[in-house]
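ugh ok fine here u go
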Amino acid sequence: MRIRYFTKHYETPGSVASAARHHAWLAEHVRPLRLPALSVVGPTSLTYERIDGRPARPEDLPVLAALLGDAHGAAWTSNLRPAALNTPHRFRDGTAFDDYIGTRQTALRRRLEQGHLPDQAALQALLGLLEKTAEGPTAFYKDSNVRNFIVTEADGIYTVDTDDLTLAPMGYDLAKLIVTLFLTYGPLPAPAIDAALLTYNEAAERHAARLGTTDRERLDDFLALHSVLTAPYAGRNGYRYCWPRPFLRGSA
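structure:
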């Protein structure tokens, strides 16, 4: 079968180098993820194997939850154990991950400026929630929106768009998947979310018992953060539904 290719362009050589390093890091340390092969690194572009398939759907949530739990567990066991959530981390090979707190504090403040938060009190509540969730074993965040998984007819699931990786708590990227499934296809049944969390924890704890401890309250905290962080994209990228307000449990 003939292999086809896709070329992605970047603004700077530094962005190319960072994206290539992140792809290589995932290929080495997160073996559960299946990635398109990176074939050519150009001055301002990367050329990947083109994968034909469809984006994730709600019926894929169980298998994707298991995949993410396995991936996060493998990454922690292989290379993320020493990383702290509130500190940017640079690996021995030069690969760098932004921390969990800093970039999201900036993004949440921007959401207030953009009108996606009602007032300063709501911002402070979310910043407090961000600080609260910055604990436990360190995973990675790769933006698990529905378009970043390609489900093929023959080969299973590929993970794409791995340019920007950051540190994140266990379960945070699962919450991003759940939010984007909701935004794309509509509300998900609560039992489906509970089952996905259980599946995620079971997959993660096969690597270490402490990795499979994300509970529903913590997942809901992540969902609240993602609902605000994704707010500017409503009506774009296939997001046809709006996450229900209030953003925070118990808020007005």
